[in-house]
Amino acid sequence: MERAREHDSTGGLDQPARRPGETGTALELLVHGVGGTTPQEMLNDPRTVRITGDDIAAVFRRADDVDAEKSADDRRRDGPVPEAYVWCNLTSGNGTRALWLLLLPFMVVNLAHWMRPSARGRRRTVRLYGLLVRLTGLTLTVLLVAAACEVALDLAAWQCAGTRACADRHSWLGFLSPTVSDGGWWSSPGRRLALASFVPTALTVLLWYLSRRTWSDYESQQPPARDPEPDEDGGGTTALGRPGFWYGRRLVARLRAAHTAAGLVTVAAAVASAAARHDRRPGGPAVLDILGMLLEAALAACAVAVVWVVCRRGRSERRIDQELDERFVRRLPLAALVLLALALLYAGWERPGWESAGRLPGDATFGGLALVQGLLVIVLAGVAHALHRTDPDRRAVLRGLGGPAVAMLACALGGVMSGGVSQRVSDWLDGTGTSIDGPPVLLTWQASVIPPLILVLLVLFGWLAHRAWQLARAEREAVARDYPDEAQDRARTRRIAYTRAMASLTDRGPRIVAVTSGVTLLLGAGALVGALTTDETPGVAARGTYPVVHGAAETAQALGSWLIGLGFILFVTWGRRAYKDAAARRTIGILWDVGTFWPRAAHPFAPPCYAERAVPDLTWRIATWTRVTGGRLVISGHSQGSVLAAAAAWQLTPSTRKRVALLTYGSPLERLYGRWFPAHFGPAALGSLHREVDCWRNLYRLTDPIGGPVRLPGNHDLGVDHVPLQDPLSYGRNDLHPLPAPILGHSDYQADPAFAEERRKLLARLRPDLPAPRHTAEQPCPGAEADPQSSSGRSSA
């Protein structure tokens, strides 16, 4: 692709406004959705030019339209100048990015932060909600690092290297074994632990590095500076329009420092606690005992400081906050690193007669984490319920409890992954199952709950399949009514009805999340109680019971570790496919793009937020183009691109927002975002967007599993939602469609004649010199009078 030099239409916000003689210039800014596409496909032209941007995200035009604003060709006034914003490289590219899926619990808990219910006048309760989610995210970091410590320190260095039979089977551990190495320098238990601690330490440093680097690559772009609007100071209808919403540098830096320090303190505590326990035995060295107590006190103080930093401050959104809390960002991780070095030195000190036996004291750690996570989720549910009661939203999922349910799933993912990996490594190290004790019994119990959880999911999927079959039968009559003049083909009707039924299953997602979260909470509580009361693995604890119970316990314990290993393979495989294959991204990528749309407000090690680059890009482009040219502009957003378009529109100044029209199609704005994120995309927020832009039209199909109607309350709906587009365009063969028309579903909305007609009406409504009059009940958006069904849509939509 050619590269064009920056031209006059990309001037800065402070550049004096100038309006060329061509006052009729119109622009259609296309924003693609999940999976991405090429600028050639978006602009329907093989010759495209990059107007502005870089290799990650950029704006393209046709080669013939580079200087459209300066051209004297009157023919350009008949149609808009198409311009494509291509942002797919923010979420795709190298297949190694699929490794981000291993950090899925961090992304999920970050989602829970943004799922809080909408509330008015409950600022302290809202802050408490954010605090509880941040604390839950902190426990997940500690859990991940503790699991790495369990694998490297306990299973490998302490148990396997300290047991001759296990060390003989793994020659790479020979130099750590007292018997194989004949008492070598590294064979001391403390030095083995100190050496193995580099694995969880390296993991913590890697997470810190990735978080810092991805911030610089993706999230360091500042939105246009402006003063907050009056309603923003008073709470407003959505926080997405606040000047600093898409620039969370200060909070991310604080959380990154706190989580890095938490990881280092966890490693230091795992190393020092074993040595301190040895020194506290009767007759132990008094000096080392005192040093151990001082070191543990310092580690406890550092842990308290970490919790305090996480609790002290949330996001600052009312202005672009470029400050950094240097004393926390730099000193806290440095203090934790110093304590880790002291812990390694303390553990590596010579202790004659010290031998490793049994397990490291990890049961209390993992049990305490599980208990704290359960309590945090329960309290979070109470806070969410209180917020929902202050401003009920009937469309909000689970009556406002979507955030706590998702937070529970994040904790479950962390616990299952920790338990499964530990059990899998233990089985690999101890082939006979008799030479080492294995991981803490709680982790084995957590891995054992995977098979019953999968059975529950299979029942859920069976229910969904049955529901899809019922809906498909009901839709057959609707399909026949939609094509009344066509000769009915039973196979064709069945296929269209089945596609509509499968698309409607998206709306059953909240039930799946609710059941999965509830079952997970019960199974997790059962695993915790079983581990604490029996102190035995499920198979051993079930001895002496009914043979069926004993067999089920042993089967669940054996399958748990293997299933988690298979799950890791599937995660990486699906993730790599989603990054490489555009078709796979359209099915797998939507959930991933929803997760990475939101800023990192609860967990700094979550995958980077692409919207902190894309939304400022769009805002700058819209604001500068309308200021310099004074022309008409339609933001045309498909799928996830419609969400970016709405977010960019909220970021515009009120005067600029009134010069812009929105055309969304296949949009999840209400169907996914409005229901799952009611505080930011609820009816009040979408209603305000409808009132503040010049006009907004939304297109959707009943066969689309992602997009849907906006469903604004009251009469506003008549001005936004078009009637459901017919899909396929033709039922059978005819003069216009001699070949069978495909069922388009979520793709190729531009192929429908309604798309061009709606775009033409939007451009005709906009005025090049002055903003158009506000639409009212007497003066609705174009096309509203033809859409009497749009307020209700179809039940399967």
From TrEMBL:
The chain crosses the membrane at residues 128-148, 193-210, 257-278, 290-311, 332-349, 369-388, 400-422, 442-464, 512-532, 552-575. Residues 788-797 have a biased composition (Polar residues). InterPro entries: AB_hydrolase_fold. Residues 1-26, 219-239, 765-797 are annotated as: Disordered. Keywords: Membrane, Transmembrane, Transmembrane helix. The keyword Membrane applies. This is Lipase family protein.
